[in-house]
Amino acid sequence: MRRHRTALLLAAPSVVLLVGVFAGAMLTLLEYSFHQYLPDGTDIAHTAVTWQTFLTGGYHWQIVGETVVLGLITTVAAAVVGYPTAYALHRVRQPRWRYVGLFIIFAPLLTSVVSRTYGWELILGDSGVLNSLLEPAGLGPVELLYERSSVVIALVHILLPFMVFPIIQSLGQLDPAFGEAAGDLGAGAFLRFVKVTLPLTMPGLIGGAQLVFALSISSFATPSLLGGGRVNVLATEIYDNVNNVDWPLAAVSSYALLALAVVALGVFGWLQRRTGRAEQGGVTAAGAASTGARGWSGWLVAVYAYVLLPLVIIVINSFSSVSYGTWPPPGFSAKWYANLFEQEGLGAATLLSLEVAIAATVLAMVIGTAVAVALVRHRMPGRGPLQSFVLSPTVVPKVAFGFAGFIYLHRLGLFGGVAGLVVTHTVIVLPFVVIVVTAALMRADATLDAAAKDLGAAPLRAFRLATLPQIRPALIAAALFAFVVSFDEVDMTVFLLSPDQNTLPVWMFIYMQKFQDPTLAALSTLLIVAALAIAATVAVLLARSGVFSSLTPSPEEPVEKVKEGTSA
Amino acid sequence: MTGMSDISRRRFLGTAAGAAGLALATACGEVSPQSAAPSASKGGKLTLTMFAFLGGDLGKMPKEFAKEYMASHKNVEIKIYEQSNSVGYTKMLAQKKAAPDRPLVNFGFFNAQTSVQGADDKMFTELDYSAMSNAADIDERFRYDHGIGIGIGIDQLGLLYNKQEITQAPGSWADLWNHAHQGKVALFSFPWYAVYMAAKLNGGGLDNMEPGWELWKREAKQIRLLVESNPQYLNVLSNGTAPLTAYFAGTGQQWINSGAPLTYVVPKEGAIPLPVNLQAVAGQPQSQLEAVHDIINEMLSPKWCARWAETSVEVPANTKAELPGNLAGLPAFSKATSDGFQQIDYGIVGRNNAEWQKRWETDVASRI
Fold this sequence. Notes:
The structure holds two protein chains of two kinds.
Chain A: H1 5-33, E1 36-37, E2 43-44, H2 49-56, H3 58-91, H4 95-106, H5 113-124, H6 129-134, H7 148-172, H8 176-184, H9 189-200, H10 202-217, H11 221-226, H12 234-243, H13 247-275, H14 297-317, H15 335-340, H16 346-377, H17 383-391, H18 398-412, H19 418-443, H20 446-454, H21 459-487, H22 493-496, H23 504-514, H24 519-545, H25 559-566
Antiparallel strand pairs in A: 1-2
Helix pairs in contact in A: 1-13, 1-16, 1-18, 1-19, 3-7, 3-10, 3-14, 5-14, 7-10, 7-19, 7-21, 8-9, 10-13, 10-19, 12-13, 13-17, 14-24, 16-19, 16-21, 16-23, 19-21, 20-21
Chain B: H1 3-28, E1 46-52, H2 60-72, E2 76-82, H3 85-98, E3 107-111, H4 112-120, E4 124-125, E5 150-162, E6 185-188, H5 192-200, H6 210-218, E7 223-227, H7 230-238, E8 244-248, H8 249-257, E9 262-265, E10 272-281, H9 286-299, H10 302-312, E11 315-316, H11 325-328, H12 335-339, H13 346-364
Parallel strand pairs in B: 1-2, 1-3, 6-7, 6-8
Antiparallel strand pairs in B: 3-10, 4-10, 5-8, 5-9, 5-10, 5-11
Helix pairs in contact in B: 2-10, 4-13, 5-6, 6-13
Subcellular location (chain A): Cell inner membrane; Cell membrane
Protein name (chain A): ABC transporter permease subunit
Domain ABC transmembrane type-1 (chain A): 64-268, 350-538
């Protein structure tokens, strides 16, 4: 045990948080799963009837099957779109165009799920944008909306960044010496890709697949709003059962989803550990030089169009003259912007969202990076179960965690305050940090860290000087993911707020229930503009500090210079 | 490593494990919860929380009322909690299980199904009609023998359609399964009323829903989509994706007033009435309950009943309340419509709601 003391110390804060908050809430849920609610309101405790009903009912297994199928299709589609996109972006020579591309891929996360869904409805609808283009060409109309296809299209759209960023991170850490060596030995471009690039970037691909699969099987809003009642998955089933006050069945369905996810994460984790063994043995930590995106421009333009189209539709619709969504808008008006600023509670909700998102991001970054180091750099016993435990919050539907957390926070005396919101948000963003940082650490050169220690540096100093510079882009990506996920969270938070509290997404959710006009499109437009301004400022600052150079070094920058910067 | 750092780490790990263990222990047992609702006296004031519906202008009248009541009762503060019945009731029930003597809200507006559910869950407490001067003026159909809640208004369900897409106006509930509208019908994710009307028109009723289930199993392809939210509803109706539905007259009229190309029709078999009740939540101290009685009584007055009717586009439950002029000409508010309402026993609906919802999902939703 003494041998693994450092690893245990690094893992402890995350474990404490997860045991104290997540496991506590899930135990509450487990307790409910052994209840049975009768139609007359009678609550029978200590019974396994609800479990029996779930396990022996064919309908529930159909839902489990649909959940798996949706997760697999979405993951494969995201990989098919995401890998070439990451590859193409990595090859872009001009850093500024690479950053613009990365920002475009990230852009969907800047809008709320309500707005995005609205945009897809206007695009994929019977009389939507897509059909208005296909029909004159004799190819339409096609019925995509309210089918599984529309759910997959929308899920890939929002989950694409979770696939692209880990892959591009792996590509950035790829040692160019391997590709050059393969080329010297006569391998062509395709063979170099298959034999060198793909295997060495596999941890990034698997990390991305892990995130996309976990998020897609637990997604609620998209299947619910775009599935038209045809895409019944475990998350929608849980939501229905919570609203139907059948909490025992909601609890059992949550555990079914959790079991499914734990199996999947176990498989992904095993794959990642297998592929992550190809360490680069101290050759160099420098990223591969970009070789130009010639031939990939068409692909990138198509992906940008796919990513940006719903957002453009939202912006245009924010100027619609009518309250309902129709394409094209019958007229234009700025009245929804004026209406937005007349709303009560918007400022307070925005401040609370920022407060919670910033606190949760900082907390998750500190403890998440620590546990990632423990998982990658220390061969401690029980790494597999620990990794699955740390990642498990991603697969529990937020609505189930929200209602379990509501009861649990009461028991802790934290309901109604900011602290309860911060710890629950930290729980749900922690896995994003761990996955992204773990993937980066696997490709980071550990020998530099060892060399620093050999030269007398204390472990923390060695990590700060040798490892941190290598994983800085991943840390930035992880922090962005964490912030955005927390800032946009609504399914869970709606249960955790006291009557006099609101976060911005919950404010939007409540507004949406009251009015059906483009005021939320106006708000989304302003959020996009604000995010663009902040992102541009941050990008300029980071570029000046040289942070991006290790992500995708420009060929204009000599590799030696990069080495100097990263191995001080 | 020094001995001191070893001890510190052990202490740190021990403290951390203790903290997690303590937190975990609370998951398995009761810990005295904090007050959830701002219901205690604050600055010498009695603070009460009112539950209000989300949707359209349903929050207007409660806010206006609270403002006026607080102006004339300086010792009372009324906070408004706007939420949907489903999410709001779930939180109320969770709060009741965690702290039965500290309800999330003190009183508020609840639809008929939630009222029945709440009666079964012992969520609501009896109102003393004799102590409420305006209770006697409420339509007797919305004063209840058990005294759990009292009606303030009546919404209704009828047919709502896109007049640009459907040129021949539907006039019967049977139009929902008329093959002329195949693949064009939108319904809420669990429309018990559609099953009920199918049962009723085929020899059944609330006590025998089988004919309705059989019909919808057979005609599931009539449904283009099951809708989850009001904005989605407005969009699919307005853009013609699914131009026909069964929907609330009140919210439908608000959409029509905002310019949506829709028309509301009272079916020839009668609309389905949806009473909106005011309820007092159980578990609050007597001092609060007395104030809640006074507030509910004020809300039942002709003035506030009429204002509720105007903002929610509903029929006022107070027989002395005047129907607002802008509503008087609408078919939904005619006496014939009110007289022709379907007779619905919401006790049956509430008690079968969960089972019916499961059956809808397995027998109908899986076939659309």
